[in-house]
Design a protein that fits this description.
Distance between the termini of chain B: 47 Å
Low-confidence stretches of chain A: none
Mean pLDDT of chain A: 95
Mean pLDDT of chain B: 94
Strand order of the largest sheet of chain A: 2-1-3-4-6-5-9-7-8
Helix content of chain A: 25-40%
Radius of gyration of chain B: 26 Å
Oligomer: heterodimer
Shape of chain B: globular
Helix content of chain B: 25-40%
Strand order of the largest sheet of chain B: 9-8-10-11-13-12-19
Number of helices of chain B: 19
Low-confidence stretches of chain B: none
Number of strands of chain A: 9
Number of helices of chain A: 11
Strand content of chain A: 15-25%
Amino acid sequence: MFGLGEECILDIPDRYFTLENYEGGVARWCPACGDHAVLAAVQRICRDEQLPPEKVMAVSGIGCSSRFPHYMHAYGFHGLHGRALPVACGIKARRPDLHMWVATGDGDCCSIGAGHWIHAVRYNMDMTLMVFDNAVYGLTKKQTSPTSPRGMATNTHPRGAWLPPLDMIQATLGFTNASFVARTVDWNPLHLYQTLEAAYHHKGLSFVQILQRCPTYTADVFLEAQQHPDRVLLMKHENGVKVDDAVGRIYKNQIEHDPANLHEGRELAEQRERIAIGLFYRNPDAPRYEDYTAQGMEMDTAAKLQALEHEMDRFAI
Amino acid sequence: MRVDEHIVEIVSDSGEGAQKAGQTFGQISAKMGNGVWTVEIIPAEIKPPARSRAGASGIRVRLGSRYVTNMGDEADVVVAMNEQVLFGRIEQGAYKPGTVILLESKWADDPLVEIREQYAKALGEFREQGFIVHELPLEKKFVEIAPEAKVGKNMFVLGMLCHIYGRDLDRAMDEVNAVFARKSEKVREVNRALVRAGYDYAAGHLDLQFEVPPIASREPWVVMNGNQAVGLGVMASGMEVVAMYPITPATSASHYLGGVFQNVGGCLHQAEDEIAAVGFAIGASYAGKTACTITSGPGLALKTEFIGLAAMSEIPLVVVVVQRGGPSTGLPTKVEQGELLASLHASPGDAPKIVVAAATIEECYHFMILARQMAETFRTPVLVLTDANLATGVQPFNRPAIGPEILAPPIDQSPWPDGKPPYDWDEETGLSARPIPGQRGGEYVLTGLAHTRWSKVAYDPHSNQKGCDMRSRKLAAVQRTLVPPQVHGDPEGDLLVVGWGSTLGSIEEAVDRLRGEGHAVSSLHLRFLSPLEPGLTPIFKRFRKVMTVEINYSDKPDAPLTTPENRRRSQLARILRERTLVNVDCWSVIPGQPLPPGQIADVLRGHLEAMRGEEAPCSA
């Protein structure tokens, strides 16, 4: 057209993704299960970031949490109990182009999967690790979890869970090379979204504990926090999880916390007066293991064959 | 004196470099055209006590003027740095009357009276048994060049052997330089001087010379141990990810890859445990190129859940199992063939997978390429069984050809055809193509739960049956591509010996010896264990008796309380009986070392003689 510079022409992409593009099977979680909110948040992020579905990777273990990949239209790996993280790391090792979401639970990650949890944080590969923490083993019908509160009655401890619960935030903050440690809640969709969005954007392993309602087995466990917002402490900072006005109006107890301050992050995790939500710690410079594993991916066939002959020569007689 | 072959041992306390000296001697001999087979003698601890019978560390090198396939029977020449370490070898029948022992003599003048007495007593016993012992003050000699007594001995011994066997000294020097390539020139200089000193010493003081002529003419060779062959095979196959956790005796394959894998663009991942290693490999395979994990028996046990997932979700995977002594932690450095049944069965439910066993070091290399190809073609885990004997033994073989056709293809990222399921099972073969993440339109959720061809979770009887049928069918498809195995010897006779893995050379040498004595015995060696090679039943039926020879546990038939009905047979025998319905017998022991051909021949001769007086084949 006359006088129209190239920069004025609307750049309409070939493909535009709507929420529907990320919808897999109909979610079979119980009505009012917090998992629905997490799924919705992740689908929204994929849509807002316009991630091609074929480049989205959802990896899970076993549990209600781990049904997640089935409800996303993407590539999914619904694997073994406790073993999502090694698979996710193996996928990421030579496929840095895939957007990795790992769905796991309090049992899957912190009990049977505990060894992998520690080391995955240390590998710090670029992925978002979502721990759906409902403080119980739901899918197998109400056994005690490492995060169950003391005294909670379950089928394996009808007289009440005996041990104090494991604190996964304090633990993760203690792991070498931790680079992003956050907590959010499923019943505040805005905070949930902003936390996962920040996690997605962080380059490295983003550890996100999601306190998740289980209406069937642990309806009461987070009731206090749900019904009394003053029990929550909202961490804020320009480098932290973005706080929408609506969220700020609900959670009046707020604290300015720079996520670069690990010591302060640990103190906020340790204190028991309130449940701190937001970003405890971030280190954008922590080394990422894929920088090691992806080396040599670009090598062409001719170079490989030459190197092979050379190697064979070393054994030749 | 010209000989067809000779068996040489170097035996000492741990940490004295006997293995390095022997490996180098083997390399030099191979480069001069001899057939070579080496076996390491390893104590299970890193630092066992000095001068102890159990602490013997060393190496056996068998060199010949033809291709050598096993460790042979009794040694001809032994160099020993103290007399105590020989007792263990003698107990194992490693020597015979006439074996020449070159023995370090400094213990005769040791300040401690107990040591002087032990030495004198042992010497007497050795001579009584007919060994020809030469007492040699070796340390006095090599200490002149390398004052630190422990350090010099092995290269001095190498020099001696080079003279005794007429090795080319220039070639020896080249090898020494290669062995110490990563050290300083000063170190190489000292070691070359030690070799020369040992050579000159033997020339001046020993009336001992043997000529083992080289093999007449041959193709270009390479020489390496089985773990190196596995590593090189991984690289040649185009696999780009190896995930592992340290476990004896598999680890050195990963050490080798750790040094060179990046030269072909590959990545070695040391995982936090065995389970993480196989999970990582499966993730890498799922996302593009078949990956590999390398382990031993106890590691296989840990990996079985994930291997079952790979079989169920049809993800290609290569698992190398370098077998060792069991059960449980067992004998980490010693050979056994104990993982056959575990490889076939150990995952939950029915998880059909391909299992192959390398019989030689050459096969350790080639089977890696075969494994990658089969894993991808059949969308299945492939387990490659080797063992501690192959892992550490050294043998030359024909230099393999390398080419782009054996490298893994690049990752397919073209759009997935519309309407094509992720498990598009061919009704006849069970084969299907698999979508790779990134392929537009191929999005699916892999699951270990029972599923349909659309990878949708399904608990109905029909879907479960269908899935299991298709995965089992793939094994039938593999089996239909195989041809019956070759029989070594006559196609019919009195006795057929069936083996698998590293016993190949010993079994065939034993069979050849017995055929020379006029016995009607043949052997057969399996590489494919799952699926089993075809045509076994008709082959077996042409013999009066069939038996396996294996290095794993079985009850002796005449043991107390043992009947043919409750007798626990060795692993391959059980499989063959199930498959062929032939009354396959077995003979197996678990000595933690390879079976010498003489021992096998004695056992087979016993069975053949027992059969002489009978009408029907003897029952097992």
